[in-house]
Amino acid sequence: MDLESILFRQGFGSRRQCRALIEQGRVAVAGSVCKNADAAFALDDLTFDVDGTAWRYREHAYVMLNKPAGYECSREPQHHLSVFGLLPAQLAARGVQCVGRLDEDTTGLLLLSDDGQFVHAYTSPKRKVPKTYWATTRHALDERQLTALSDGVLLHGEKAPIAAAAVRMRDEKLLEITVNEGKYHQVKRMIAAAGNRCEALHRERIGGLALPPSLTPGTWQWLDDEALQALRGG
Ligand code: URA
Questions:
Q1: Which of 2, 103, 105, 115 does the annotation list as catalytic?
Q2: What is the pLDDT of residue 62?
């Protein structure tokens, strides 16, 4: 594929902007500056540098972000900052979307991708992907609440009760809860329906993929093959 198309597909701007980047000598392939926008390269394991930052050609982008509080999962946020501002501009430019949304005040594991099938697969209610959260509660948890959550609670607007796939009391006011759905404010509403109140919510795991401790709040990383495998293995 020619270098202009490579940069264009990876989100480095319009075709004209990509051509200009190359002609200005800001792009290197395999360590050598290439000023020819029409030069062709094989895509397998292709790496290139733009302004000194190394990139690998990726057909699709799959990333995980440790979402901090105070960010909305929207490109046009209403009241807060956008999670897309935490990613390099070219990821947003190539159309990555959030794989399910977290509330503005929820922290933790958020996946983003520009692969529509992947986004659909992990947000589809049919797929029942388990998502594990740590919820800090206002009041001390008790057995009655845990039983209500695992037996199922009826949420406003729902026809049938929704049960947690797993619940575990980690501390007096810290609940680990796994749900298979992704309904609006689901965990907060379930905890309220069980007679408590969620004061803070953090997503720790999706499928078999846990938030890596090295991924500090506000930072992101590519999902490598191992992470994608873990995600599927949940
Ligand atoms: N459940 C909620 O209530 N909020 C989230 O952000 C995610 C799950």
A1: 103
A2: 97
